[in-house]
Amino acid sequence: MLPVLVVHGGAGHIPKERSEKSTAGVCSAVRAGYAILQGGGSSMDAVVEAVSELENNPSFNAGCGSVLNVKGEVEMDAIVMDGKTLGSGAVSAVRCIANPVQLARLVMDKTSHACLTAEGATQFASAMGVPTVPQESLITEYSRIEVTEIHEAGRTVFTKEGKMGTVGAVAVDSDGNIACATSTGGMLNKMEGRVGDTPCIGCGGYADNKIGAVSTTGHGEAIMKVTLARLILFHMEQGQSVEAASDLGLAYMKSRVDGLGGVVTVDPQGHWAARFSSPQMSWGAAQKDTLHYGLYTGEHFTQRIDLPH
After folding, report:
1. What is the pLDDT of residue 148?
2. How far apart are CA 178 and CA 11, in angstroms?
C-alpha cells in the first residue's frame, strides 16, 4: 500500500473552460511528488514538490495565479507538517514569494517558530537566500478579470462558491512517515491582511504518524471554526475509516456553520480518500504505480502512472 500521495487543487465551482487544466495540473503534480516517493524520498519532500508544482501553475489559487485582495494585490498563505515529529512551519500574508510552501518548510526546518507572517516572513526568506519575485509575476489576467467583475457587480467576496482553489497534498512514504502541505492565495477580494485556515495548524492541514494526515480546501473561516483537519483525524482516532472520517468532518462543517469544502486524507496503512461537499474538487492520487483522479462527486478515473494523461 505504501508509498501513497494524494493531492487536491481546490474545492468550489470550477468553470468548464478551466476544469481540464485543473485536472491535468493535479495529475502532473501527483506524478512529480510520486516520483520522489518511488525514488525512496520522504513524504515531506513529496508533498512540497507536488504543492510547488501547483503553485507554479497559473490555473490554481496559490503562488502564480493567486486571487487578488480588495486592493488588487496578492497575499499568500502556506503550511507544512511532519507527522513523525509533529513539527510544522507556516507563512501567512506573504506577497513576493513564488513558492510559499517552500518558505513554510524553511520555517519548520530552520527556526524554532511555527509561523511567520508578512514582512517578517519576507525578511526570513531573504536571510535564507530565497529570492523575491515581482508581484506582477504572480498575477494572472484571469485573476484581474475576476476581481474586476466582483467590483462591477458591487459584490464583496466569494464565500461558498467561486474560486477557492487552495492546493494541498498528503503522503505516506516507504518508511511510514506521513506529511501534509497546503498553499493558497486565499479568498477573492478579501480584506488586506486577511489570513484564512491554510496556515493554521489543525485547520489547513495536520499530520501525525500515529493517525494520518489531512489537507483541506474550501471556505477558510468555516474550516477554522471546526478545525477541520484535526476534527477528521479525531474521527480516525475513534476508529473511523479515512473516507467516513472525512465525510463526518465535512458534514459537521456544513450543518454547524454552513461551510463547504473538501479534503484529501491518508492513514498510516496507506488508505486514502478525496472527499468534498462543494460542487467540485480537482484531486489526484498515486499508489501502486496507478494514477487516480477526478473532479465531480462520484468521479474516479484510473490509469497507469507512466502513461501520458
Report:
1. 86
2. 23
Establish whether 264 is an annotated binding residue: no
Which residue is listed with cell 492546493? Answer: 167
| Residue 218 marked ligand-binding | yes
Distances (CA, A) of 178 to 6, 76, 229, 247, 270: 12, 24, 14, 21, 10
Q: Is 197 annotated as a binding residue?
A: yes
192 grid coordinates: 488586506
Domain 4-304 CATH (choose: 3.60.20.30, 3.40.109.10, 3.50.50.60, 3.20.20.80): 3.60.20.30
Catalytic entry in 23, 159, 166, 265: 166
Q: Is 216 among the residues known to form the active site?
A: no
Span 35-52, average pLDDT: 98
Best CA proximity match to 46, nearest among 219, 169, 176? 169
Mean model confidence pLDDT for the chain: 94
Is it the case that residue 98 has pLDDT exceeding 80? yes
H or E element, residue 7:
strand 4-12
CA atoms of 277 and 181, how far apart (whole Å): 21
When pLDDT is cut at 50, 70 and 90, the band that residue 147 belongs to is confident
pLDDT at 235 (0 to 100) = 98
Identity of the amino acid at 295: L
196 known ligand binder: yes
pLDDT tens sequence across 216-256: 999 999 999 999 999 999 999 999 999 999 999 999 999 99
Residue 97 one-letter amino acid:
I
